[in-house]
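Entry type: protein chain
Record version: 2
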Amino acid sequence: MRDPERELTFWLAGPERRLLRAIARRVPGVITSDHFTVLGVLGATLAGVAYALSSRHPAWLWAASAALVINWLGDSMDGTLARVRHTERPRYGYYLDHLVDAYATAVIGIGLGLSPFFSLRLALGLVVVYLALSINVYLESAVFGTFRLGYGRFGPTEARLALILVNLAALLLSPAPVQLIGDAVLAVATVVMLALLATRCARNLRDLARLEPRVTPNRRVSGRDGTRRATSLA
């Protein structure tokens, strides 16, 4: 399997890439990409647990924000380290990375729903839509050979940053309007992501239809003289 060409268009892609490569060059040789993958899984798990525990005390949102940073570091550094060291394993990395991303999305989303700041139904709905966006990215990489990680200017790093800002708002605001605001944020995010998904799917189908135009099948019929000729079914 050839490693799909990465197409990163979101806001923080440039500075994030430079920062990650600078970190990767300073990572000791005993630390591998798999270590960072484990770190990302740990960060996602801690974020989900911290969100759930915020029902006991809002201070757990600080832990959730820190865990999101840990998740970002692990999730972003595993592939970067492999590319900097020229130790890529395209099929292994592709499979493991997407498997871990699905787990992280689910556990963080469930944690959000178990917190007092978001509705569980809206959080699970957001998880489903986010996974649908991810599946579309995976299909695009297989069909077009290009890995377009983000949607427009918004990618996974921006999503984590948005969650951290929501956490900060929840800590600063009084408890009463927090769930209302949190649910409004989730609802708007879900609608926007659905619109982005529909737009991108429509564009992909248009591009694929141009690359592979419809082929009209032919059928054989007999003429009066007994010969057979091709006739279009259209």
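Comment: The radius of gyration is 23 Å.
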